[in-house]
Backbone:
C-alpha cells in the first residue's frame, strides 16, 4: 500500500504570502496614512532580503538536479518561475497601493512631487539645494558598448540615463549615477506653502539637474530610469580552522558585496533598447528574475518618510509601562527576582528594566560575574555599556558574541573588538552551531552562598528593536533553571563539557525530542478521551517532522491552535489531515516575535518561552533554549496573553492551504479586538491592580472553535500524475 503523501506549503511561497500580509497593512485605510507608507518600506525591505537569501539559495541548487528536488521538495526551476510570477503580481498591487496613498496624501495637503511638477520658486530652491548638498556626492559614470559596465552594488539604487552627444556621429552612450542614500536623505522637504507640504525624492532632484552633471562632458541627458540589482548575500563559512572566526566573517562580508546577481528591478517604462543593453552588460537573462516596477525603487527608505501633517497620520505608540513589581527606583531588582519570577513583555512594558538590572549587577558588591549571549546589539548599546561598566567595577564578564547574525556581522565584530579592549572575555560562538539563545546569568555570593539569576527570553538584547518587536522575557532565581543555565554557559566556554538537561529544553541536544514527546503525550490523552490541547506561537513553522507530528495529533483529536507570523508550511484545517488545527497570523504596528508553547498535559499545563522557531535550522543547527515556566502567576499571565492573541479579530489573518490571507471574521456576539491594543490595556489594568482576565486554556479554545466555510475544511491538493 502506497504511503500517503502529506501536504506542505512551500516555504518560499508561504514567505511571499506573509509579505503580502505586510502589503495588506499598507492598503488598509484604517492604518494611519504615514504608517501605510512605512509598511510599503517594510514590504520592500523584506522582499530585498528574500531575494538576497532565499532566491539566491534556490538558484544555487539549480545544478543539483534531482538532489535539489529532494532538498526543497520541488524543481527549483519551477519554483523560481512561481516566485517571479507571484512577485510581479505583488508588485502590481504595490504600485496600486502607492498611488492610493499618494491621492490620500494630497487630500491631507502633503504632495510628493517630481522634477516636472516644480513651480518657478521651487525650481530655484531645488537648484540651490542640488549644488549645496548633492553635487559633491555624485560620481557619474559614462558607458557604451565598448566599455565594461560599472559594478552595481547590492542594495543601492541607480539612475540609468540616456545621453545624447553634441557630436552627431558619436555612438550611443549612457550615464549611471548611484543615488547617494546614505550619506544624503532620500526625502527632501521643500519650503511649505501655507499648510501645504511638499516632498521630493533625491532621485528627482538629480533628474532635475542631470544636464548640469553631463553638459560639461559634451552630453545632454534626455531620460533617466531607476534600476536596482540584488545580489546573493549568503556568507559561506568553511571549516578552515587555521583562521579565526572574525577573519572568516570579515572575508565573507567582502564576498557578499560581490555576490552573484539574483534580481534586477527596473522602471517598467524604460525603453526596450535601454533594457536590452543593460541586461546584456550585467549578463542577465529573462530567467534571472527581471522585475518591472514603478518610477522608484529602494522603497525601504519610506520607513523613514518624514513626519508631516496631523498627528493622526502616525501611530500613537503609548509609553512602555513599568512592571508593577519593578516600579520602585529604591528597591533592588535582584532582591525582587528572589521574591518570585518576573515576566516582561515588550514593547508594552519597559525594556529599561533589563538595562537597570545589568547596571545594578555591575555595581552590586555581591555580584561576582555576568555571562551573556549576544546576537544583535543596538548601534549605541546601553546593554554593552552596562557590561563594560561591570568590568570597570571588578566583575568577571563573559560575552558569547555570535558573529554570524545575518546582516549584523559588522556591528558584532565592532562590539567584540570593543569588549576585548575593555577586558571582557569574548567567546565567538560554538563550532558548527549558531548561538541564538537569549540568556544572561548573574552570579552573586551572599553569606558564603552562591545565588544565580537568569534572564531567558524570545528577543535580542537590543533597546531599539524592543520598541517595535513584541517579545517576552522571564527573570528567575529558581535553582531548577539557574543551575542548568550555568551548565550551558560552561559548555559555551568548554565545548567538550556537555550536560543533560532536566528542565531546560536545549537545541540541538534535546529540543526536537522533547517537543515531539509532548505532542505524543497529547495524542495519548486524546485517545483516552481526555482534554488534549496545544497552543503554539511562532515566527515560522517549517520543519516537516514537527508538522507531521501535529498532523498526527490533529487526526487523533488533539485541539491545536497556531499563531504563526511568518512562514507556515503546515496546511491548517484540511479535511482528512488537520481538521483540528486552527491557525492565524497577526501583522500589526509591532512585529510579533515571541515564541510561546503551551501543552495541556492532562491538566498539568506545560508552558515554555523559547528563542526557537520550529525550523530545521533552529532545532538541529543552533543553540536554542526553551525555558519552562513554573511560577503559577507567570503561567497564568502567559495564558491570558494567548487568549488575547487568539481572540483578535481585527489584524489576524486566517492561515489556510490556499494562502488567501483573509481576515479572521468577527463572530456574532464578539466585540472588536485588536490584539496589540488589547495587550497594552491588559498590562495597564494589571499595573493598576485590576484583574482583567482570569482564564484557563479551555475558554481560549472555545472562543475560536467556529468555522469559516470560505477558508476552512479544505481538502489537501491531489498529487498530479507524473509528478
Residues:
Amino acid at each position: 500500500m502506497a504511503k500517503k503523501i502529506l501536504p506542505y506549503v512551500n516555504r518560499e511561497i508561504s514567505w511571499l504570502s506573509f509579505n503580502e500580509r505586510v502589503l495588506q497593512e499598507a492598503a488598509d485605510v484604517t492604518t494611519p496614512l504615514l504608517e501605510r507608507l512605512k509598511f510599503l518600506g517594510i514590504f520592500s525591505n523584506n522582499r530585498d532580503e528574500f531575494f538576497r537569501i532565499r532566491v539566491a539559495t534556490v538558484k544555487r541548487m539549480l545544478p543539483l538536479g534531482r538532489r535539489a528536488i529532494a532538498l526543497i521538495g520541488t524543481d527549483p526551476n519551477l519554483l523560481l518561475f512561481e516566485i517571479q510570477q507571484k512577485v510581479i503580481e505583488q508588485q502590481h498591487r504595490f504600485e496600486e497601493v502607492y498611488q492610493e496613498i499618494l491621492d490620500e496624501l494630497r487630500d491631507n495637503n502633503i504632495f510628493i512631487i517630481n522634477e516636472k511638477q516644480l513651480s518657478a520658486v521651487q525650481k530655484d530652491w531645488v537648484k540651490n539645494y542640488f549644488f549645496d548638498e548633492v553635487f559633491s556626492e555624485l560620481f557619474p559614470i559614462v558607458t557604451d558598448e565598448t566599455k565594461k559596465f560599472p559594478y552595481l552594488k547590492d542594495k543601492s539604487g541607480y539612475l540609468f540615463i540616456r545621453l545624447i552627444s553634441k557630436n552627431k556621429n558619436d555612438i550611443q552612450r549612457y550615464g549611471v549615477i548611484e543615488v547617494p542614500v546614505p550619506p544624503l536623505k532620500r526625502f527632501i522637504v521643500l519650503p511649505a506653502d501655507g499648510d501645504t507640504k511638499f516632498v521630493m525624492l533625491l532621485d528627482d532632484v538629480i533628474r532635475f539637474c542631470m544636464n548640469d552633471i553631463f553638459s560639461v562632458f559634451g552630453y545632454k541627458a534626455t531620460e533617466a530610469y531607476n534600476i536596482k540589482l540584488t545580489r546573493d548575500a549568503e556568507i559561506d563559512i568553511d571549516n578552515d580552522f587555521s583562521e579565526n572566526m572574525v577573519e572568516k566573517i570579515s572575508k565573507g562580508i567582502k564576498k557578499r558585496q560581490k555576490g552573484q546577481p539574483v534580481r534586477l528591478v527596473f522602471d517598467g517604462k524604460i525603453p526596450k533598447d535601454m533594457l536590452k543593453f543593460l541586461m546584456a552588460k550585467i549578463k542577465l537573462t529573462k530567467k534571472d528574475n527581471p522585475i518591472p516596477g514603478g518610477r522608484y525603487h529602494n522603497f525601504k527608505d519610506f520607513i523613514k518618510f518624514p513626519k508631516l501633517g496631523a498627528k493622526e497620520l502616525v501611530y500613537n505608540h503609548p509609553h512602555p509601562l513599568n512592571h508593577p513589581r519593578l516600579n520602585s527606583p529604591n528597591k533592588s531588582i535582584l532582591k525582587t527576582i528572589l521574591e518570585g519570577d518576573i515576566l516582561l513583555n515588550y514593547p508594552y512594558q519597559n525594556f529599561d528594566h533589563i538595562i537597570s538590572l545589568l547596571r545594578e549587577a555591575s555595581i552590586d558588591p555581591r555580584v561576582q560575574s555576568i555571562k551573556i549571549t549576544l546576537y544583535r546589539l543596538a548601534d549605541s548599546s546601553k546593554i554593552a555599556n552596562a557590561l563594560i561598566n561591570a568590568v570597570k567595577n571588578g566583575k568577571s564578564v563573559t560575552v558569547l558574541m555570535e558573529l554570524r547574525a545575518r546582516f549584523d556581522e559588522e556591528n558584532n565584530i565592532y562590539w567584540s573588538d570593543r569588549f576585548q579592549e575593555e577586558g571582557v572575555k569574548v567567546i565567538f560562538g560554538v563550532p558548527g552551531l549558531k548561538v541564538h539563545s537569549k540568556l544572561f546569568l548573574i552570579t552573586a555570593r551572599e553569606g558564603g552562598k552562591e545565588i544565580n539569576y537568569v534572564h531567558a527570553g524570545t528577543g535580542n538584547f537590543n533597546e531599539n528593536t524592543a520598541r517595535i518587536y513584541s517579545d517576552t522575557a522571564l527573570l528567575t532565581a529558581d535553582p531548577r533553571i539557574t543551575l542548568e543555565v550555568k551548565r550551558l554557559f560552561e559548555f559555551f566556554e568548554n565545548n567538550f563539557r556537555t550536560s543533560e538537561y532536566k528542565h531546560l529544553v536545549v537545541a540541538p541536544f534535546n529540543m526536537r525530542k522533547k517537543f515531539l514527546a509532548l505532542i505524543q503525550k497529547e495524542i495519548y490523552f486524546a485517545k483516552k478521551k481526555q482534554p488534549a490541547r496545544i497552543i503554539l506561537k511562532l515566527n515560522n513553522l517549517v520543519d516537516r517532522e514537527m508538522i507531521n507530528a501535529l498532523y498526527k495529533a490533529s487526526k487523533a483529536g488533539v485541539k491545536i491552535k497556531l499563531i504563526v507570523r511568518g512562514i507556515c508550511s503546515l496546511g491548517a484545517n484540511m479535511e482528512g489531515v488537520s481538521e483540528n488545527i486552527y491557525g492565524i497570523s497577526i501583522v500589526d504596528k509591532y512585529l510579533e516575535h515571541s515564541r510561546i508553547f503551551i501543552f495541556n498535559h492532562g491538566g498539568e499545563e506545560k508552558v515554555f518561552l523559547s528563542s526557537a522557531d520550529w525550523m530545521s535550522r533552529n532545532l538541529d543547527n543552533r543553540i536554542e533554549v526553551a525555558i519552562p515556566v513554573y511560577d503559577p502567576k507567570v503561567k497564568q499571565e502567559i495564558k491570558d496573553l494567548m487568549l488575547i492573541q487568539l481572540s483578535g479579530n481585527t489584524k489576524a489573518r486566517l492561515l489556510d492551504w490556499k494562502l488567501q490571507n483573509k481576515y479572521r471574521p468577527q463572530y456574532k456576539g464578539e466585540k472588536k479586538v485588536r490584539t496589540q491594543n488589547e495587550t497594552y490595556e491588559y498590562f495597564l489594568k494589571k499595573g493598576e491592580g485590576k484583574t482583567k482576565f482570569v482564564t484557563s486554556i479551555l475558554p481560549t479554545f472555545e472562543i475560536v472553535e467556529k468555522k469559516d466555510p470560505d477558508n476552512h475544511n479544505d481538502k489537501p491538493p491531489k498529487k498530479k500524475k507524473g509528478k
